[in-house]
């Protein structure tokens, strides 16, 4: 085995310690011809630090489109002319109905996602009402993804019983200004920290393939690790027509597999969740994605793109011999029959998770 890989294996599996930036840099420099060895190492690290179970989660976009921010990848931004669905915050009963359907199908938690810079007080009132009703009437854990928060908003959500807050950094610090000009990287970090300080679990990842170098990708993994998230969603850019990144060539499957493995080595104990763009980028290699260190999946549709059928992912995991996390171990648990949670009446397109 390559020396850098052998050193990483010794550190993570024998010494049971985290790798330094230099050690991961050395692994990233290993030729892609040795990718099978890197994948094998990442899978061993995943098993040793996280176990065999895979978390499956579905997303509900409770308010879509017309976002004032200008994130270059996002078809929900008003800065771009796209065919994304635009609708205000869903009717409360429709949200409860969606949560009930999730629960009846085996889900243990429900995630409320809205496309905004950050919640207005009026929107927050509605979300808090949804959170309380889902908890009281449906009995599910609730996660939220509402954009930038201030301290009082984070505390209000935590007090309302929100278990996990998703707020991605989206891109490495060095490239973020090319991805978004209406807010900055530090604002995203601040919200991630506020969510944690308020007592919510942090879900924080990003989108790969937006022009970052391999070195910047490694830096990004370390920037995320500093925040100590319990979950890291990895999206791969699925260029949306009409957005600023609509003409970008997606990264190759081999680059994506290398990135998944590197993120696992940097974040050995976090849930690494494969999310938007995985079908586009990995194609027939979905199984290798799960063998490269990932231990969680977004199933069904994403926020603005259509995913493959959850049943396919359930079958894939069965064929890999990977058990699906049970109640209390993950969000939106999918049982053998499969669960597909989406906003009522919507077959919308979406791609990233925020
Ligand atoms: S990624 Fe989020 S904040 Fe950025 S434009 Fe899209 S919905 Fe708005």
Give an overview of the whole structure.
With 354 residues, the protein is an alpha/beta fold. It has a single domain (3-320), classed as TIM Barrel. Helix content is 40%, strand content 12%. The chain has helices at 3-14, 21-28, 35-50, 92-104, 121-138, 151-160, 176-179, 185-197, 214-226, 253-266, 278-282, 286-291, 310-320, and strands at 55-57, 60-63, 109-114, 141-145, 162-166, 201-203, 206-208, 231-236, 271-274, 296-298. β4 (141-145), α6 (151-160) and β5 form a beta-alpha-beta unit. The model is unreliable at 330-354 (pLDDT under 50). Residues 67, 69, 71, 74, 76-77, 115, 117, 147, 354 line the site of iron/sulfur cluster.
Please describe the topology of this protein.
Blueprint: H1 3-14, H2 21-28, H3 35-50, E1 55-57, E2 60-63, H4 92-104, E3 109-114, H5 121-138, E4 141-145, H6 151-160, E5 162-166, H7 176-179, H8 185-197, E6 201-203, E7 206-208, H9 214-226, E8 231-236, H10 253-266, E9 271-274, H11 278-282, H12 286-291, E10 296-298, H13 310-320
The structure holds iron/sulfur cluster.
**Share of helical residues:** 40-55%
Q: Determine the mean pLDDT.
A: 86
CATH-defined architecture: Alpha-Beta Barrel
Low-pLDDT sequence parts: 330-354
Number of individual domains? 1
Ligand list: iron/sulfur cluster
Task: State the end-to-end distance.
Answer: 38 Å
The secondary-structure element order is HHHEEHEHEHEHHEEHEHEHHEH
């Amino acid at each position: 085995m390559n020396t850098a890989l052998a050193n990483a294996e010794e550190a993570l599996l024998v010494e049971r310690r985290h790798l330094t930036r230099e050690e991961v840099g050395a692994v990233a420099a290993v030729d892609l011809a040795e990718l099978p060895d890197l994948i094998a190492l990442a899978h061993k690290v995943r098993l040793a630090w996280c176990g065999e179970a895979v978390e499956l989660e579905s997303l509900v976009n409770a308010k879509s489109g017309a976002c004032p921010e200008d994130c270059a990848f996002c078809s929900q931004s008003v800065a771009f002319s796209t065919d994304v669905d635009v609708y205000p915050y869903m009717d409360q009963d429709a949200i409860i109905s969606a949560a009930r359907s999730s629960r009846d199908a085996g889900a243990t938690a429900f995630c409320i996602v809205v496309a905004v810079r950050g919640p207005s007080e009026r929107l927050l009132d509605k979300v808090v009402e949804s959170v309380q009703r889902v908890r009281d009437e449906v009995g599910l854990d609730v996660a939220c993804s509402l954009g930038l928060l201030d301290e009082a908003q984070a505390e209000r959500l935590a007090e309302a019983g929100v278990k996990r807050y998703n707020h991605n950094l989206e891109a490495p610090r060095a490239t973020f200004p090319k991805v978004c000009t209406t807010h900055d990287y530090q604002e995203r970090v601040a919200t991630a920290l506020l969510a944690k300080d308020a007592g919510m679990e942090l879900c924080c990842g990003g989108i790969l393939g937006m022009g970052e170098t391999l070195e910047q990708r490694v830096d990004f993994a370390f920037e995320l690790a500093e925040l100590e998230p319990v979950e890291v969603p990895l999206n791969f850019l699925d260029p949306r027509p009409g957005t600023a990144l609509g003409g970008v060539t997606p990264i190759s499957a081999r680059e994506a597999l290398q990135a998944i493995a590197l993120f696992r080595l940097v974040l050995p104990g976090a849930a690494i969740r494969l999310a938007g763009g995985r079908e586009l980028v990995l194609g027939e290699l979905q199984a290798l994605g799960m063998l490269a260190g990932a231990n969680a999946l977004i199933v069904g549709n994403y926020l603005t793109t259509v995913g493959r059928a959850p049943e396919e992912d359930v079958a894939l995991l069965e064929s890999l011999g990977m058990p699906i996390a049970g109640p209390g171990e993950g969000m939106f648990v999918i049982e053998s029959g499969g669960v597909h949670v989406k906003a009522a009446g919507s077959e919308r397109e979406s791609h990233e998770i925020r």
